[in-house]
Amino acid sequence: MSGSQTEGATGRQTPSDATILLREGDPPNAYSFYVLGLLCCVGALNFLDRQIITILLVPIKEELQVSDTAMGFVTGAAFAISYMLAVLPLAYLAERVQRRKLIACCISAWSLMTVFSGMVTSYAQMVVCRAGVAAGEAGADAPSHSMLSDFFPARWRARASAVLSLGHSLGIFLGLAVGGYLAATAGWRVAYIAVGAFGIVVALLVWTIREPRRGGRDPGMAHANPLPMVASLRVLWRIKSYRYAVIATAFQSIAGYSWIGWMPTLLIRIHHLDIATVGLWMGLAAGLGVAAGVLLSGVVVDGRVVREPRWYSWIPGGGSLVSIVFSIVVATAVDASLAIFAFIPFSIIRATWGPPTHALCQNLVGSHMRATSAAVLGLSSTFFGLGIGPIFVGVMNDLFNQRYGIDSIRYSLLIATIGFLLSAIFYFISSRYVRDDLARSRA
C-alpha cells in the first residue's frame, strides 16, 4: 500500500498506512505521565546547566580577560565538539542497557562538572568543564525520547515531546533568571555551584523509574534487535523525510543558538541593562516563550497528523519563516522594551520546530533504533547549533567591532538569521516524503 490514501470497495477513502500508524496503541496511564514529568525535570536541568553560561558570559569574560571569540568558543564549540564525540556512543548504549540508569549516571556526571565550572581559575579549565558538561548531557535527551516512545503511543508523542521540551524552556528560564540573580548577588561562581549540586537529587529520582518494555506501544510495527551503529546510521540516512528534517534542524539551531547565546549580551551592550534585569526579562521572554511554543505545536501537530502527516514538517517550516521577521525587529530595535517584547513572539514561534520533528523521527523507526534516531537529531541541533552559532556571532562581533563598535552584535545576529530561511527550505523538502516514509515504517 502506498503512503497516500486509497479508495475502498465502497468508493470511500480509506486511511493510509501512515495514518493508521498514528491511530494505533492504547492511551497512556498515570505512571506514564509521572515518568514524563520526571523526564521534563531532567530536560530542565539539562538546559539550566547548558544555558546558564549565556547570562554569566560578561562577568566570566571580564574575570578571565578573554575575547568575544574565546567566549563564543567556550559557549558553543567546546560544548558541541564534546557532545558530538559522546552522543552516538551513549545512544549505542541506550539501545542495549536500561535507559533510566544511563540517564541517572549522565546527570550525575554533568552536574559535577557544573560544580567544577564554578571553581575554575583559568580559561583552559573553563573549556574542560564546559566539555565535561556536554559529554554528560549527551546521554540524557536521546534515551529520554526513546523511553517516552515506550510509555506513549504514536498519536501522543508530539505532546509528550512538547512536555519534555517544556523542561528545556524551564531550564532556559531558570538559567537566565536564577543565574542572573545569583551572579548579581553572590557572583557567577556561586551560580554554577548551586545549580550543579541540585542535579544529584534529580539523578537519584531517575534511578527509581521502572524501565518500560521496548516497542510495547507500537503493536503494528516490526521491532528487531539493535543494529551496529554504522548500520543504524545507514538506515536512517536512507529515510528521506528524516534526512532532510535533520538538515533543517541544523540550520534552525545555528540561528536559534546564536540568538539564545548572544541576546543577553545585546541587551547589556546596546541597551545598557544590568545583568539581573537582563536575566529576569530574558528568562521570561525566552523561557516562557519557548514553553508556549512547544506546547502549542505539540497539541496542534498531534491533532492534525492523524489526517495529514505532512504537518510534522509544515509546522516547523512555517515557524522558521516567521522567525525571520521577528528576529529583524529584535536586532534593529531602538530601545530595550521593543527588543524584549519582540523577542517573546520570536521565542514562541522559533520553538515550534521541536515536538513535531522529534515525534516524526521517533515514529519513522522501530524501538531498536529510536535512541539513535533521537541522538542524530540532537547531534545536528547541538553540534551545528551550539558548535557554529555562538562562535560565529563572536567572530563576527570581533571583525565588525572596529567599524561598527557596539552595534556589531546587531549585524552579526542578522547574518545568523539566514539559518531560519535555510531551515524552512529543508523542512518543506522533508514534507514531500513524510507520508511514504511513515507507511514504510510499518513494513
Summarize the structure.
With 443 residues, the chain is mainly α.
Distance between the termini: 10 Å
Strand content: under 5%
Structural class: mainly alpha
Main β sheet profile: 2 strands, antiparallel
Rg value: 21 Å
Mean pLDDT: 85
Tertiary shape = globular
Strand order of the main beta sheet, please?
A: 1-2
The amount of helix comes to over 70%
Task: Determine the number of helices (DSSP H or I, runs of at least 4 residues).
Answer: 18
Order of helices and strands: EEHHHHHHHHHHHHHHHHHH
- Low-pLDDT runs: 1-15
| Count of individual beta strands | 2
Structural description of this entry:
- By secondary structure, the protein is mostly helical.
- 77% of the residues lie in helices and 1% in strands.
- The chain contains 18 helices and two strands.
- It has helices at residues 17-21, 30-64, 68-94, 99-117, 123-137, 141-149, 157-185, 188-207, 229-238, 240-271, 275-304, 311-332, 336-350, 354-363, 370-404, 408-416, 418-431, 434-440, and strands at residues 6-7, 13-14.
- It has a two-stranded antiparallel ribbon with strand order 1-2.
- A hairpin with a 5-residue loop joins strand 1 and strand 2.
- Helix 3 (68-94) runs parallel beside helix 5 (123-137), helix 3 (68-94) packs antiparallel against helix 15 and helix 11 (275-304) packs parallel to helix 13.
- It is globular and about 60 Å long.
- The model is unreliable at 1-15 (pLDDT under 50).
